[in-house]
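SEQUENCE-TO-STRUCTURE ENTRY
===========================
Question of interest: how does this chain fold, as expressed in backbone structure tokens?
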Amino acid sequence: MIDPSTHDPFDADYTRRLIEGPFRPVLEHYFRPLLLGTENIPVRGPAILAANHSGMAFPYDGIVLDVALWQRDGLRPEAKFRSLFEKQLSMTWWMRPFGLDNFWRRCGGIDTTFENFEQLLLRGDRVIYYPEGVRGIGKGFQNRYKLQPFHTSFVTLAARYGVPVVPMYIINAEWLVPYTFTFKTIDRVMRRLFRVPFLPLPAAPTAMLLPWAWWMALPCRMVFVAGKPIDVRALAHECGLVDLAHPDREAAMRTAERLRTIMQTEMDRQVEAHGRQPFERRTLFRELRTARRGRVLARTLPTGWAQSFKRFERDALRPEARNRLQFILRDWDLLAYYLPFGWPLLSLARNLRRPPYGYRGLSRKERNMRQGQYSWNLAERRLPPRTACDPEPAARVSLRD
């Protein structure tokens, strides 16, 4: 029996259907991920998978990594890595993929706070963490493959609990949006006036013109390389971080910087090995031909993602269309994704249409809960205990070569 005092928005069935439905052609024919070094990933937790971010506006690298790892583990709920994500991704409509309600938490994400991170490790979870934080997403193409300063929280927790840190090197994802650049002065203005951490240029102005372009990404083949686990506790002792119950901030910063240097050296080596052909045109053209023969090319290309994912979300909450005309007319608002300056129409439709098309008739609290616009503290709304069935060694799920 489920303890009513616990809370877990992770919906394994929804996430599986999302992967097997609209995301499958994108994954198989467009991004074509390759997962290497999986023998270095612990089968059971607690463990921290520390990954770099690509310097772009939207974190497709994190989404694809999450899916690739879960596919490898057979899409079993108990084997799911829990990803820590910045709350801003949930609070802002355009940072949820195609506006899907509460996307990050429904797919297994947890709000990033020190307390939440600690609770996950104490619970025995395997955690995906991006130590660069928002700075990693917003560093721009001009700083590709340059690891930004790490947050100290995860080195403190890894050392305190003796948790292995497995570096995950994400290669080629820097080329998802190679035309995105950021500038510190402009970013400071955006943070002060609009509470937006950075402004990707020229991607953001382009997306203002055509909404679907906000989620635009080029078809780079993402390569994920799991490195050898790092003993952060030993590293911390070398850097003078001895009192782990009351860590010295300067020593924690030295430890984080030492870890960043180690990962940067290996990152450079992995880029040399796997980053020479980020698009792998030969396999790309082969997969696009396969998608065309399978009649999924429209859902494979970025121009079709907005409609594909939004229809999937709505279809789960409504009966099948009675005829072709109803099939077209009931999603009339999705045309706004392709209209110049279509954002106001999208916003108007969300406010005027009833669920599953919009939020009319819902109270503010109901709307916020539905969208995921709330903070989740595991100390107050704790996760249920892990199931007795911990993940066994994964049956290898073949990702395309």
Remarks:
- Strands lie at 34-36, 47-51, 82-85, 110-111, 126-129, 165-171, 223-226.
- The longest strand covers residues 165-171.
